[in-house]
Amino acid sequence: MNPKKVLTAIVAGAIGCSGSAMALEVDREVMPRVTLSGRLITTLDSDYEASGDPGINMGDSSFSARFDKRMFEQGVAGAVLGVKENEGSVAFHQMHVFYWDRDVEVKAGRTQLPNTLVEFPLVRDHDITSMTHVGNGSSNEEFDQLYGKVFTADWVLDRKAQKLGVWAGTRRNENAFAGAPDGFDSYGLGYRYEPSEKYMYLNRIRHAGILLDAQKDRAGSNPYFQSIVAGGEINLNNSPRRNWSMGIQGIVNGGVSGVTLVDLNSATDAVSNRARAKSNALVASLRYTDRPHLLTRLQAGLTVGYKTYDAGGTELSVIPSLKYRIGQGVDVVAQYRNTQYSDGLNAVDSTNLVQVGLSFSLDAKYNDSIGERDSILNQEHGYIQ
Amino acid sequence: MSEKKPFPPADVNASASEESEKVVNSRRSFLKKAAVATGGAIAAGNALAANTKAVDHSAMGHAAMGHNMDQYGSMMFMQDHSGHMVGGKIEPPGSPADHEVNYKEFDIDIRIVEHEILPGIKAHMFAFNGQVPGPEFHVTEGDWIKVNFTNNTEEMHTIHWHGIILPYTMDGVPMVTQDPVHPGQTFVYRFQAKPAGTRWYHCHWGTPLHANHAMHGAFIIHKKKDPLRKRFPYKREYTLMLESWDIDMLREEMNEILRGMKEVNSLMAKGKLDYMTHGFFRNYEEFKKAVETKQYIAPYLQSRSNGLHVNPNFFGINGKSYPATKRLGIKQGEWIRIRLINASGKPHHMHLHGHDFWWVCQDGNDLAEPRHINTVHVEPGGTYDIMVYGDNPGYWTFHDHATTRVTNNGIYPGGMLTMLEYEDFTPTYTPSVSVDQ
User: Fold this and answer.
1) Per-residue model confidence (pLDDT) at position B4
2) What is the CATH number of the domain that holds A224?
3) Is A76 on the interface with B (CB under 8 A)?
4) Min Cα–Cα distance to chain B from A46, Å
């Protein structure tokens, strides 16, 4: 790869937004592409926050604004600012700058942690986070299981679908444990096969990959503990009309030694302790998508997740879900979740949750003068800078 | 001046009939390539045709080449129709069979290319034989024309022969006169070249994107004796296709089309495509019922679309925007003929500096009385022929006087502008290039 190109990518990704005191003039004639995206989801839950009473749940609702501009020589740089519902308040889940071109994708700032590979057919991203994501040993907050401050760099090996990525980041939040490490506390690398979503119903493999994740423990001399994530999703019948697909992902967490069953049931630190514990998780799903006249109308999914801890205790979740599309981006959603616990991993051995609601999603682009790196034209008919 | 090389003029003295005598008469028809003026881009080779399989209409209740209009019809609504639409060669009735007349035969295809409009600006386009505009036909009135049109894209297409009087089955309007030409298929158009004049051809499928953004070309039918030559004794002629491109809409629409067509073609290959997926209906009543019963959610409904907004940001002549446009050459005392064809879907007002010219033809037909003007209004789809006499040596711009079309992405000058250059004078001021005023 051209060294100048690498330098441009790294600098663009690492520097971030300049402070206003340092800012050069901005030419108003060059409007960025603006992408507004987000989802507001509201469900009526039969068991709101394990209280045993029904309630209204707006969790996972978010809104992001993304700005892209073409560079003078090549590539595109920009920024994303996004807010998301977090335990009844609003928090920034996206606040990063990025650079991409035909060969690289770089971003730096607050965004998703690269700690999962498969999006399962669930109503919300965080429905079974403990099984679908590498946990955060430095925070008990649900938000911090999904988001962090990261620098990621992906090389697109074949300029199409194969990506080799590295990242460094900070998982802990402002309310860090005493003794938690400063600076970067997490590193990772991985290989992902990610064809454009334009081919999602046509290729046998929708996507697949393997990730290695290392994070410093919050305690003692801050030893690293590692996790391996492997998974993907395949089409079972390659039909864009009535599509069946299956997703599967496993996480092997090396953990730190000394985490006991008592720690896993800690009244205050159960979430982070479970992330620090030696464990194995496997999640599999079956997804059916009905698209009469190639217009998506219905998705039905069945997700099963199983996790076992070396210290004792297992979790087993079975989650059928349904999304019925009543308008573009507007879905009636329904989900049932049953989770079985063993060895006293939860106050009760079995929990049940029924959710019914409405999800409104938007993805609006304005002033699109850029296009996408992985568009069909760019990938099959010659790349246009 | 960045480039002084004039257009290669069409050699109007080498008529199509004369050319046809130079080639071997095979297959009882003439394989012609010399009559194509634009870079010889219509390949005479028939490898694609040879590799395609003929669709057996008789097996589906149709006559394959029976020329029986009662038995020819759409295959779109037949049970398991889609399996039959992959590949194949479609030869509709309506014109004489190959053995009945001497056809001049052309092979033309459609493919996706990266086309450079001007330095720094490229766009993917559907292009006839890979060029924008498509190859320029020059034939003689009365010639029998056979065009083997092969679709080498994943999208559907047709060819409409604009201004040519032909059997309706050759008119190229999808689902009105023929099924669209499916990916991999070859459709054979046969017709007689008439009437004479400046005609053109374009895709009639998804016209705002296909025809207006690249799938167009000139079809010039020469008279055996052109009466205009008596009054305007021209020897050189130029064909200028006037174009506009919204390259952002083009990129997004083409990507969306290809995404959808990959899915459509996948189902088609399995014989599982529902014809309504593409908005095909047997008749208005079936369509109305499907919409009213919500069986079909039409793509134009406000629940599915905000509409296709075409806002051209580049304008051009023969595939290029100024200063990449090619120049027109003229000599002192010479008459030249300029054929203007508006493929852009927008009106253009072509003005020539330093000269009055004679407007002699509209839509291919000679005007009863030529008009002496210096700005000609070229309506969308229309063709306008003008004669210019070389009596004012110099460099003279020729451009759309709707000046927002003389821009590149909003920056003046650019777009639909070229230059008339005298080839036989000594300039006192030599033009250079300016692109930011």
Assistant:
1) 31
2) 2.40.160.10
3) no
4) 32
